[in-house]
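Note on ligand handling. Small-molecule inputs were canonicalized before submission; formal charges were left as drawn, and no protonation-state enumeration was performed. Where a ligand contained multiple stereocentres, the stereochemistry in the source SMILES was retained. For NAP, this procedure yielded the string shown in the input block below.
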Amino acid sequence: MGVDGVDAMKIAIIGVGRLGSILVGKFARTADVTAIDKEFCRLKPGAGIKQGNNISDAKNCDVIIVSVKPKEINGVLLQLKELSLGKHQLLISAAAGVPLNFIKEYSNAKRVSRIMPNVNIEVNEGFIAYCGEDVREVFGDLGVCMEIDEKHFDVLTSVSGSGPAFIWHFAKAFEEVAEQNGISEKDARMIIGQLLKGCGEMMLKTDKSLDELIATVASPGGTTEQGLKHLNEMRVNGIIAETLERAIKKAKEIGKSIG
Ligand SMILES: NC(=O)c1ccc[n+]([C@@H]2O[C@H](COP(=O)([O-])OP(=O)(O)OC[C@H]3O[C@@H](n4cnc5c(N)ncnc54)[C@H](OP(=O)(O)O)[C@@H]3O)[C@@H](O)[C@H]2O)c1
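Structure output:
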């Protein structure tokens, strides 16, 4: 029984790695969570978390989230098929590159969604793209959920799923320069973190284009203009575009190898 005497949603998470462990931690606060991993669960048992070693432990769950690597999803879906999931059960796959049709076909589940979340769900600021069944009831508290055409999922995998790692890669360079110039590690973390948070808020809460936002900082002959000139000379935007395209290509390759 959950809070207010209402039955808590029963959620199984299959694959408790980088993404799955965040999901377990988040959902354990409000739901009845069964965490299923290949050999053993990496999480210590806690309130609301049951450890499962077997896919069949998901049998009676309302929601089953699969967060194993794409190359391992096949076997998991086939084992789920043996459970003959019912009409009320929602199967959600987070695996990059694995199409909705494949998930349906291999699991024979009646209600299926494909999502592409990012790890910012840990602070309830994730972006969760979904196609298939609506997942807002499950993921709504963890960030912005948006239904997106499946044909865009490879792009989303790159810009949003992998996105935090790319942004933090650049943030690391900012932190390093701050520290090399005498700012403490702790202060640098706060300064750059707040910088990113503020930039995100500006993008979401003003109606200015990115060029207009850049222009509000870069006064002619000033320090920002010098830095931007260097970024342009070094074709940094081209490198970023190539980086994202490589991730898109990899997502497409995963899809081809699965289907
Ligand atoms: N990490 C992200 O930011 C992110 C974002 C969006 C989507 N995704 C997607 O989420 C999925 C998981 O990514 P990840 O980074 O969390 O990978 P990961 O850290 O490798 O986690 C996968 C987990 O699944 C376990 N596993 C493998 N086969 C299993 C099975 N048959 N039954 C139960 N558990 C099994 C693995 O155990 P072993 O290590 O023992 O094999 C591992 O603990 C991927 O498909 C990825 O595309 C990840």
